[in-house]
Amino acid sequence: MLRNYVTDQGIYSVDVSALVCCILIAYGLWSQHKPLMLTYNLFGNVAKVVRVRMMAWQYLFRGPSIIQHYFDKSNEEPFEIHAPDVRMVFVSSPKHIKELDSAPDTVLSLNGAAKHMLQPVYTMNGFNWFDRRGVEGIGFVRTLRTLLTNNLPFLVPSLGTLMQVRWKELMASSKVTNEIGSAQIYLYPAIMKLVVLLNARSLFGEDLIKNHRFMSSALRYVEETLLSAEVVKLLPSFLAPIVGGSLSRCLSSHKTFFDSLIPATEQRLRERNLKRQGHQVPERTIVYVIHDLCLHPEYIEPIRRELEASYEYFERTGQGLPLLDSFIKESTRLTPVESMSVRRRALQPFTLSDGTKVSVGEWACAPSAAINTHARYYPSPETFSGFRFVDPAILSDTHEYPTPPAMQTKPSKLTDVDHSFLMWGTGRMACPGRYYASAFMKVVIAQLLMNYDFELVKPSHARWISWRVAKIPRPRTKVVFTARD
Ligand code: HEM
């Protein structure tokens, strides 16, 4: 392998492989004077470090399958995986998950993990938060859990109307494929735009969503944050402040977003921590639920019948629709947008009851996607069974539903938190936005089902790309929508 180097004195060629061989031979000669074991250990250690680093970089592109591989070998004991920027200890037994939840916030921190993920100093217009939960009060968590949930009966009808209007506009501006007006839509970008709009309506009100500058910055905000945080995390630490600082100055969407949001939020809620609530939004989940409806069309008619009978009740209460609830849950079980949950960053050294250590700066977490297909928790775990979570008594009342290929022994709801379903995390820090997120997803899916027929243009094509633990829907996946009337 020849490399050419140009200098003032001319061009030099260096054979890199020969050079490496020379170094190894020189090392071999030198090491003859050392005890054999020392040499052996050194080579062993170097090989191990190289292997771990290579795996760490592979994790970026194959995170879910690497986690699944180690989970399958682990027999539910803790196992470690390295990313380029952090070592992670995965725990999967209910006992160990409970240990993470019970650890004091000063030792294992969800805020610290979120901070590491999002690098807010560089990516959020200088906004930052404490590693330790509760330093600024947990008022905003309560606000989300109680106020947002209690407001669902007011929010759901207006979200439904806004959804109908925007989807009609989208259909009108999309490529029409036949004489009955079917339109081909790139699903992921369309759903992202819609979710940003509807969330802004719920969280910031009518006025702000009419502000075009704010809305276009809100759309770019999430993606720019995640992308810049990735760049900063993968850099050597001494470069992070320089590159992060430059990136931060370039992110115009962040400045616009905060400039518009801060006065409006302060006026309405006097609750500054709400600024960070936009980090978890359900657009990816909705995309996969729509894919699953296309891939398992036998569920569409029973769910439509449920909507005809009970959508009005759902609009009034924000509750109900057990068939749709179960279908969404099954879709998220088999295509979770993330393969990891219960992220905690160690602020102090932490030791699990089996002796596994998590050092300061490292993560403890749970392999949620692998748990979702564990035979201990799910009969026929790899089979899509859209109504597996429904109470059998409800199913026997529903006419002509497909016989579920598998049923859970105990019925459950999408919003239920359990160690076998970690979509919302666990214990005292379980997602307070889950009632809102779940009702939100039902509004979008129900409106589409009631008003449109839809099918995937290329059902057998790959539908996502993998980055770390995330499954990101492919932006070029197309779905054809046809108005039902
Ligand atoms: C499909 C959508 C969502 C998913 C999958 C999700 C998932 C999660 C998860 C896994 C956690 C961490 C829990 C733990 O580690 O134990 C969490 C925490 C949190 N989520 Fe969500 N979430 C979603 C939507 C939302 C929404 C819409 C909001 C706000 C409106 C929200 C606000 C929060 C907050 C504030 C926390 C931190 C709770 C605390 O510090 O105690 N989430 N979420």
What does this structure look like?
It is a single chain. The protein has a 5-stranded mixed sheet. Strands 6-7-15-12 form a 4-stranded antiparallel sheet. Strands 1-2 form a two-stranded antiparallel sheet. Strand 1 and strand 2 (10-15) form a beta hairpin. The radius of gyration is 26 Å and the shape is globular. It has 18 helices and 15 strands. Helix 13 crosses helix 15. The model is unreliable at 5-14 and 269-280 (pLDDT under 50). It has helices at 16-31, 36-74, 94-102, 110-118, 120-123, 139-150, 152-172, 187-204, 206-209, 212-234, 240-250, 252-269, 283-295, 300-317, 322-334, 368-372, 392-397, 434-451, and strands at 2-7, 10-15, 79-83, 86-90, 108-109, 175-176, 183-186, 341-346, 350-351, 357-358, 363-366, 452-456, 464-467, 470-473, 478-483. With 485 residues, it is of the alpha+beta class. The termini are far apart. It has one domain (109-483): Orthogonal Bundle (Cytochrome p450), CATH 1.10.630.10. Bound molecules: protoporphyrin IX containing FE. Residues 110, 133, 141, 144, 277, 280-282, 285, 341-343, 423-426, 429-433, 436-437 line the site of protoporphyrin IX containing FE (HEM). Protoporphyrin IX containing FE is lined by residues 110, 133, 141, 144, 277, 280-282, 285, 341-343, 423-426, 429-433, 436-437.
